[in-house]
Design a protein that fits this description.
heterodimer; A: about 475 residues; alpha/beta; Amidase signature (AS) enzymes; two-stranded antiparallel sheet; globular; B: about 100 residues; mainly alpha; Histone, subunit A; two-stranded antiparallel ribbon; 3 helices; 2 strands
Chain lengths: ~475, ~100
């Protein structure tokens, strides 16, 4: 079994035909992890015993012809709670936390018959763009182990790109699925806000957080997304909708599609090699019969400050729950209740988490609320309106996912501002609640770069249509780390 | 320019404590971040409403029906220290103030 040479539909047909079993796939997955993860460091916890039993159960009950995902292994970002399987959010605060319930997305994947093989590394509480903010380990980029895998879903991205697993779940608050997908040359998908239940996702920025997929192919992404979408009574921000196939338009021609390319997405700070790949992608779309025209999203330059105020404010509120009382880290030798709170939080959180709690608390504090939080929430409206204006005339927005390919481990981690600017092209999507994908847009100096496609709210199908057309027209997916075939 | 004193005040609100050296370091970094954020002041937001969430739903209701909830023993599973089935914490009332 070689995950570089297969996909969900192939595995499913092999499972149904009896050419392989879920137990064999699961065993092969753990062997691949054992062979590669000493270098890649993508996993924080493995679920070997339970996964093996779950796989045997799937085999025993038989893989139904319409159960596309049944018996196929999946990795889960470690901020999505999994019953009886340690879930840390890569924080010392939750180092020993064993959830007593499954997140809705996990329930749905289990319902579909998927096998949860383990939990992947990330920036602590999903705060970061390189996975270097993990309290436990530094994950490496699948293509070059001296480079970062991106973040915060860096473990999920590196695990998929290294061929350890075929698919993984991640979360995206400001680009945390799309940016690591871009850095590792795979497909990252962030759905519309309200499409997927956040119940059981350890909260960071509740008005921005979205659970999505990291996969090697566009079709695999649609298969897994279809399994996790839908309203959930336990997350009242999920939007009830008739059942739909997000991949319904995959394979259809994009002739006549109207694509917008914002000039701000190819502006200052965007690497020349990246710009060249995106312009080449625009040409390819034109050759397929789509129109690609330059537009303006004038408030793009304000996205980073707007995001850091809003996300940090929400985080400072969400992270109040970590008080050392009911669960999580409690400092030793504390003498008073106040010092349980203060010392547990001060010893349990890492620096980036503290920075954001501080920024958020400051932005919400008396005397600063209007100038910071309220101002950012108003600029957020203007950023959403930019997209609304463009989507009056266009079906999709395209651009790079990140200004540059993956950077060196250690090169930005001590400079928060430089790290934050890396997210400028992914953040606007979260502020506006829109769906977006990052797919492999080619290579610059041997490193993959991401082509980002942004859709109208709840129009994931058009993103998948264009993404599949681009993927099919190129051989990027067949190129793999450590030897481009 | 944010001062070390205001950073210490915010730390208190957030239930965090820093050494003097850490406070110096965080003050510098927060100052840089707030300088970056200050570019928002150049945006005209007169009469622009705030966006705090993107979902158009209002008043999401469900039936008020009793359901089985998580058993008590399960809920206690991640409690750092317990005694007689209760969560154990240090003294809340300072004896000297009695």
């Amino acid at each position: 079994m070689d995950y570089y040479k297969t996909d969900i539909e192939q595995l499913h047909s092999d499972l149904v035909a009896g050419k392989t079993t879920s137990a064999d796939l699961t065993d092969a997955t753990f062997k691949a992890i054992a062979a590669k993860d000493d270098d890649v460091q993508a996993f924080l916890a493995l679920n070997e015993e339970t996964a093996t039993k779950d796989a045997q159960d799937q085999d025993a009950q038989g893989i139904a012809a319409d159960a596309t995902l049944a018996g196929i292994p999946v990795a889960i970002k470690d901020n999505i709670v999994t019953k009886d399987l340690t879930t840390t959010a890569a924080s010392k605060m939750l180092a020993n936390f064993v959830p007593i319930y499954d997140a809705t997305v996990i329930e749905r994947l289990r319902q579909a018959g998927m096998i949860v093989v383990g939990k992947t590394n990330m920036d602590e509480f999903a705060m970061g763009s390189s996975t270097e903010n993990s309290a436990f380990k530094t994950t490496k980029n699948a293509w070059d182990h001296t480079k970062v895998p991106g973040g915060s879903s860096g473990g999920s991205a590196a695990a998929v790109a290294s061929g350890e697993v075929l698919v993984a779940l991640g979360s995206d608050t400001g680009g945390s699925i799309r940016q690591p997908a871009a850095f590792n040359g795979i497909v990252g998908f962030k759905p519309t806000y309200g499409r997927v239940s956040r119940w059981g996702l350890i909260a960071f920025g509740s008005s921005l957080d979205a659970i999505g997929t990291l996969t090697r192919s566009v079709r695999d992404s649609a298969h897994v997304m279809n399994a996790i979408v839908g309203a959930d009574e336990r997350d009242t921000t999920t939007v009830p909708r008739a059942q739909e196939d997000l991949g319904a338009k995959i394979g259809q021609s994009i002739k006549g599609m109207k694509i917008a390319l914002p000039k701000e997405y190819l502006g200052e700070g965007v690497d020349a090699g990246v710009r060249e790949r995106i312009e080449a992608a625009a040409e390819q779309f034109r050759a397929m019969g789509a129109t690609v025209e330059t537009v303006s999203l004038p408030h793009t330059q304000y996205a980073v400050p707007t995001y850091y105020i809003i996300a940090s404010s929400e985080a400072s509120s969400n992270l109040q729950r970590f008080d050392g009382i009911r669960y999580g880290f409690r400092a030793k030798d504390v003498q008073s209740l106040e010092s349980v709170y203060v010392r547990s939080r001060s010893e349990g959180f890492g620096d980036e988490v503290k920075r954001r709690i501080m920024l958020g608390t400051f932005s919400l504090s008396a005397g600063f609320y209007d100038a910071y939080f309220k101002k950012a929430a108003q600029v957020r409206t203007l950023i959403s309106r930019d997209f609304e204006d463009v989507f009056k005339d266009y079906d999709l927005v395209m651009g790079p996912t990140t200004p540059t390919p993956a950077f060196e481990v250690g090169s930005k981690v001590t400079d928060p501002l430089t790290m934050y600017m890396n997210d400028i092209l992914t953040i606007p999507v979260n502020l506006a609640g829109l769906p977006a994908a990052s797919i492999n847009g080619g290579f610059v100096d041997g490193m993959p770069i991401g082509l980002q496609l942004i859709g109208k709210a709840f129009d994931e199908a058009t993103i998948y249509q264009a993404a599949a057309a681009f993927e099919d027209a190129n051989d990027y997916k067949d190129q793999t780390p450590g030897g481009q075939n | 320019m944010i001062t070390k004193e205001s950073v210490a005040h915010v730390a208190g609100l957030a239930k965090l404590q820093f050494t003097d050296e850490e406070l110096q370091h965080f003050t510098g970094q927060l100052d840089e971040i707030l300088n970056m954020v200050d570019q928002l002041s150049e945006v005209d937001t007169e009469d622009v409403p705030v966006t705090t969430q993107n979902v158009v739903l209002e008043n999401v209701l469900r039936a008020d029906e009793a359901t089985m909830v998580t058993p008590r023993a399960e809920l206690m599973r991640n409690v750092p220290t317990e005694k007689d089935g209760l969560i154990q914490v240090p003294a809340i009332i300072d004896k000297e103030e009695d």
